[in-house]
Amino acid sequence: MTPTDSGSRTAPISIGRLRWQSQEATTLALSFRWRRCAKQLRRAESRSVPSHLPGRTYEDLSRSDLAAQQPSGAPTANPITTAFRGRITGFHRLLAQAFDSIPESKFGYKPTPAQLTIGYIAQHLASDNYFFCNNFGSMKGSPAAADTTTADSVKAKWPKDSLVAKLKASFKFCDDAFAQLDDAKLAEPITLTFNGQSQQRPRASMVLGHALDMADHYSQLANYMRLNNMLPPSALPRPRSACWSVSAALRPEALAQPARSEKHPTS
Predict the structure, then answer these.
(1) Per-residue pLDDT at 3
(2) What is the rounded end-to-end Cα distance, in angstroms, of the chain?
(3) Residue among 67, 98, 99 nearest 82 (CA)
(4) Residue 247 lies in a domain
(5) Is the CB of residue 156 less than 8 Å from the CB of residue 127?
(6) Which of 69, 76, 155, 214 would give a disulfide with 91, using CB separation of 3.0 to 4.6 Å?
(7) Is 211 domain-assigned?
(8) 257 lies in a domain?
(9) How remote is the C-alpha of 188 from its chain's centroid?
(10) Would you tell me how many other CB atoms lie within 10 Å of the CB of residue 67?
(11) What is the pLDDT of residues 47-77, one digit of tens each?
């Protein structure tokens, strides 16, 4: 104990109280960091979630991407359709993000004369989406007349806003068309007519074709972006990872301290 200026003596300081005060300060600091992270995440979600998926969050989309890969206790009603949905939704998101992030000045870029420009890929993907997704069921997409009568080489030079809007509209149609499917319908035969020739195929071949087509063009687009010193969406760090560590630190079990003696340590 130490004498004070008035001659009185101070009470001994409890180690337990010091530990409690330190814990309170830590909790307040972590809470402040969590609020700041939450604001950052909301801003990131508004940029990351494609506009053709209103009401969905980045977390929702991430869950759907991995739904087919995560084991669960109860069996899924339509496991094959669910697997396709997760993969297809993921590519819709990545492609929309990629085209959104590429400047319009780069839409005429192609690495070599023999390759496609970014603008050409955008209009080509939209056309492919209607081709595949029109075979998912009775629902049929109806792109604007100009989209089907204008030469691809001309459409490739349309403004970015127009190309991206048409691409996202095709993704929205594919999302709606996919909702018609279940595992039984994937096995149904369809008649596919291409270049004047018709043949019978299972409906699943069109769903698989849609997924593979997007994988092909996303890989192509990702390489174009890297050649222009841009990171493709799948290479960007997840914005929520740092905040998860703060969230974990705020859990009661993380804040709990083992009981210690409140006696002063002996010298």
Answers:
(1) 47
(2) 15
(3) 67
(4) no
(5) no
(6) 214
(7) yes
(8) no
(9) 31
(10) 17
(11) 444 454 445 544 454 554 555 455 556 677 8
Whole-angstrom distance, CA of residue 165 vs CA of residue 252: 46
- How does pLDDT run along the chain (267 residues), one tens digit per residue? 544 454 545 555 555 555 555 566 555 555 666 566 666 655 554 544 445 444 554 445 455 455 545 555 667 789 999 999 999 999 999 999 999 999 999 999 999 999 999 999 999 999 999 999 999 999 999 899 999 999 999 999 999 999 999 999 999 999 999 999 999 999 999 998 878 888 999 999 999 999 999 999 999 999 999 999 999 999 998 765 555 555 555 455 554 555 444 444 444
Q: What is the largest CA-CA distance in the chain?
A: 106
**Residue found under tokens 């492919």:** 128
> For position 186, which CATH number holds?
1.20.120.450
Please say whether the beta carbons of 27 and 250 come within 8 A: yes
- Tokens standing for residue 46: 């508004």
Q: How many domains does the chain contain in total?
A: 1
Both structure tokens of 237: 């760090």
Give the residue from 116, 88, 92, 63 showing the smallest Cα distance to 223: 116
User: What CA–CA distance (Å, rounded) separates 151 from 219?
Assistant: 25
CA atoms within 13 A on the CB side of 155: 24
Q: Which amino acid, one-letter code, is at 69?
A: Q
- Would you say residue 167 lies in a domain? yes
What's the whole-model pTM score? 0.65
Strand pairing class (189-194; 197-202): antiparallel
Where would I find the beta strands (DSSP E) of the chain?
189-194, 197-202
Q: How many residues does the chain have?
A: 267
CA distance 185 to 248: 43
Token couple for 165: 């809007």
Q: What's the domain range around 221?
A: 77-238
Q: What pLDDT does residue 57 have?
A: 47
The one-letter amino acid at 58: Y
